[in-house]
């Protein structure tokens, strides 16, 4: 669930005959940060096409974004799936398939929708399925069904990942259900306002979620230490060429890509101001290397610099698939609760991604021992996120419809 806020593609080399040099996105954003800028949108030529190609003047619009506004409209179990597809997932890969029966919804893992070496043990992929299950359960209740969840009904290596059996019951809404359409990952800057410890604790309900705990890191010294570790992990990830490539593969650089694939990460979800977002879309698409540099800079100067607190979901059994599914459900519950209270959340999993990369390649562990120093004894990390009060809202991410992921 790491993020690199730059588009796919390769920057075009400037024509030596041009009178003015082509500026990169990074150069323009630096200029904007210093003194602001005036945007003049040409009516013809390459810039005009770029406006059209990236939807620079109408971000967050089109069929790929309709699920965010239409999820309440569909009745029955298909409507519950319409809420499930709005759940969080690594790199917005949406690794789920649903099977609807008259009295149940089966949730399957689409293993092809993975992030490769970024998630080599499929830890994040299974937690993404857990996030979808939580949304599905909330939506079933709101639509007059009593859901009964059975995780891994065919065993730890079988399919489906979950069976959600339903019986008729009175409709039952909740603050979390009402927040389904408003929940977005906010990668922008957060305000300096702190979040009281009791409010952090109230975000997480671990009762009934066996073996899971939420460890909050809010005090200045440990928060700074975790920030340094997150930066170091991001640095290691971008220096690992295969992880860098796999990390970049899910970025959608044009509006055509967004509308066609309806998944992945986009510039619109990065928490930029409207001016910076428009300018970044108008400029030529950046390379993977430039994207890595920009993400690393954002990690240093925005993500870790403005976090009010970090949350870490821990367990003694991080490799257990049932535990991972339950952790995903817990994460989604935390995010929905935070959204209902005006608190922003941003998934930051580069440390566990490096831990799993080190395990999968057999190299000496670097990040697991360092992370353990910040966590309670016996608690191994499953996922990490930051919270705070956002400076600005963010645009939604593209989504496939319930019909597109139901068989």
How are the secondary structure elements laid out?
Elements: H1 25-35, H2 45-54, H3 67-70, H4 76-84, E1 96-101, E2 104-109, H5 123-142, E3 145-151, E4 162-168, H6 175-178, H7 197-203, E5 212-217, H8 220-239, H9 241-248, H10 255-261, H11 274-282, H12 288-306, E6 309-315, H13 321-340, E7 344-347, H14 350-361, H15 367-372, E8 380-388
Antiparallel strand pairs: 1-2, 2-4, 3-4, 5-6, 6-8, 7-8
Helix pairs in contact: 1-11, 4-5, 5-13, 8-12, 8-14
Characterization of this structure:
By secondary structure, the protein is an alpha+beta fold. The chain has a domain at 197-275 and 282-388: NADH Oxidase (3-Layer(aba) Sandwich). The protein is 41% helix and 13% strand. It contains 15 helices and eight strands. It has helices spanning 25-35, 45-54, 67-70, 76-84, 123-142, 175-178, 197-203, 220-239, 241-248, 255-261, 274-282, 288-306, 321-340, 350-361, 367-372; strands at 96-101, 104-109, 145-151, 162-168, 212-217, 309-315, 344-347, 380-388. The strands form two sheets. The protein has a four-stranded antiparallel β-sheet, covered by helices on one side. The longest helix is centred in the N-terminal third of the chain and has 20 residues, at 123-142. It is globular. This is Nitroreductase family protein. InterPro entries: Nitroreductase-like (IPR000415). Residues 1-14 have a biased composition (Low complexity).
């Amino acid at each position: 669930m790491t993020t690199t806020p730059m588009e796919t593609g390769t920057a075009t080399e400037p024509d030596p005959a041009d009178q003015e040099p082509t500026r990169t996105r990074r150069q323009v954003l630096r200029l904007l940060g210093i003194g602001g800028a005036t945007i003049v949108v040409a009516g013809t030529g390459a810039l005009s096409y770029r406006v059209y190609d990236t939807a620079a003047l109408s971000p967050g619009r089109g069929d790929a974004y309709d699920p965010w506004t239409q999820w309440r409209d569909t009745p029955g179990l298909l409507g519950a799936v319409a809420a499930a597809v709005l759940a969080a997932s690594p790199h917005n890969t949406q690794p789920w398939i649903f099977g609807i029966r008259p009295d149940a919804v089966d949730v399957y893992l689409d293993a092809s929708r993975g992030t490769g070496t970024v998630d080599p043990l499929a830890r994040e992929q299974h937690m993404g399925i857990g996030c979808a299950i939580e949304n599905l359960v909330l939506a079933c209740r709101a639509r007059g069904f009593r859901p009964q969840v059975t995780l891994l009904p065919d065993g730890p290596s079988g399919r489906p990942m979950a069976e959600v059996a339903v019986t008729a019951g009175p409709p039952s809404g909740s603050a979390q259900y009402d927040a389904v359409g408003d929940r977005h990952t906010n990668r922008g800057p957060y305000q300096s306002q702190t979040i009281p410890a009791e409010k952090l604790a109230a975000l997480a309900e671990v009762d009934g979620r066996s073996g899971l705990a939420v460890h909050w890191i809010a005090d200045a010294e440990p928060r700074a230490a975790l920030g340094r570790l997150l930066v170091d992990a991001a640095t290691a990830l971008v220096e690992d060429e295969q992880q860098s490539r796999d990390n970049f593969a899910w970025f959608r650089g044009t509006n055509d890509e967004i509308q066609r694939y309806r998944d992945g990460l986009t510039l619109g979800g990065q928490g930029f101001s409207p001016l910076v977002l428009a300018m970044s879309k108008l400029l030529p698409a950046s390379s993977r290397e430039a994207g890595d540099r920009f993400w690393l800079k954002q990690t240093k100067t925005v993500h870790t610099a403005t976090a009010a607190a970090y949350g870490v979901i821990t367990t003694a059994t991080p490799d257990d698939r049932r535990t991972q599914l339950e952790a995903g459900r817990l994460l989604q519950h935390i995010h929905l609760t935070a959204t209902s209270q005006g608190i922003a959340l941003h998934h930051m999993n580069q440390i566990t991604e490096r831990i799993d990369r080190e395990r999968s390649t057999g190299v000496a562990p670097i990040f697991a021992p360092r992370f353990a120093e910040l966590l309670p004894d016996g608690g191994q990390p499953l996922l990490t996120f930051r919270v705070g009060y956002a400076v600005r809202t963010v645009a939604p991410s593209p989504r496939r419809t319930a019909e597109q992921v139901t068989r």
